Amino acid sequence: MNEVAETAGLRNYPLVRRGVLMTGLISGFTLATQRVEAQAVHTDSAGIETGETHIPTTNGKLPAYFAHPAGKGPFPVILVNEEIFGVHEYIKDVCRRLAKAGYLAVATEYYARIADLSKMTDVKQIIADVISKAPDAQYMSDLDSTAAWARLHGGSATRLGVMGFCRGGRQTWLYAAHNPHLRAAVAFYGPLGGAPSPIQPDTALDIAGKIKCPLLGLYGGQDQGIPVDLVRQAEAKAKAAHKIVDIQIYPDAPHGFHADYRPSYRQADAEDAWKRALTWFHRYGV
């Protein structure tokens, strides 16, 4: 099965008030063009601290954005996995929302070694020239490095979670199978299938039975790239391996229903999914 489109929209970085947005599947992705004028949700910085930083990794430093409550902590940590469009304003807003909920949230530009996604607007090019060339092993190592940075900058050493959107949802599944220290994971419509490659050898479905922490999957019933039956296969595989997994399908929601800067945004489903995500992290000690 072809891998799913990472998102139903094309960002205009660093602001998302203007720009041509794209939905669908590419190389198995169907492309449509739409316009959106502004984000629906804007989270201010009152009572929290935010900023840009660089994360030391095993292969140089990567830029990142962080947000956490005012004060020294230690705060529970959520690693935020970006879409294929980088750490743009929507992802930063997600970090601020998490900070308002009491977390140290950090979103790293995991593809920065390959290209500056803020200067790329062609989805086909992003996928072919950037996403497909990013080794999963390096990505997992970079997440480990981001968690280590968080521990040194006000984050808890024991309360660690991960969240991701679109392609970042796939990486959330993979990281849940990689890091035994995670307490919980939340994947928003993460692609489950796809054609493996030497540097991306496993799909999320392949590793569903190997996750090491409770995982919440939030999916759209009208997602044209992630069939509900594939989502149920991943759920069944995880449960057969006695893993804790909960899949919520929003029957009328398309891909990218939480992305409030795109036409795919569905407010009621997005708000419900966000509440479920926070409840999930709380339930499992993050």
Give a structural overview.
Helices cover 27% and strands 24% of the residues. It is α/β, with parallel strands linked by helices. The chain has a single domain (20-40, 53-283), classed as 3-Layer(aba) Sandwich (Rossmann fold). Strand 7 (155-165), helix 4 (167-178) and strand 8 form a beta-alpha-beta unit. The chain is globular and about 45 Å long.
Topology:
Layout: E1 20-24, E2 31-35, E3 48-57, E4 60-69, E5 75-81, H1 89-100, E6 104-108, H2 123-129, H3 136-152, E7 155-165, H4 167-178, E8 184-188, E9 215-220, H5 228-240, E10 245-250, H6 267-283
Parallel strand pairs: 5-6, 5-7, 7-8, 8-9, 9-10
Antiparallel strand pairs: 1-2, 3-4, 4-6
Helix pairs in contact: 3-4
The CATH homologous superfamily is termed: Alpha/Beta hydrolase fold, catalytic domain
Helix and strand sequence: EEEEEHEHHEHEEHEH
Shape: globular
Report the mean per-residue pLDDT as an integer.
Answer: 88
Q: SS-based structural class?
A: alpha/beta
Count of discrete domains: 1
Order of neighbouring strands in the sheet with most strands: 3-4-6-5-7-8-9-10
- CATH-assigned fold name: Rossmann fold
Beta-strand content: 15-25%
CATH class: Alpha Beta
Largest sheet data: 8 strands, mixed
